[in-house]
Amino acid sequence: VLSMLPLYAEEMDYKLKKGSDALLTQLDKYNIGEIIDVNRKNTCKKRFGLF
Question: Which residues contact 39 (CB under 8 A, 6 or more apart)?
Answer without folding.
Answer: none
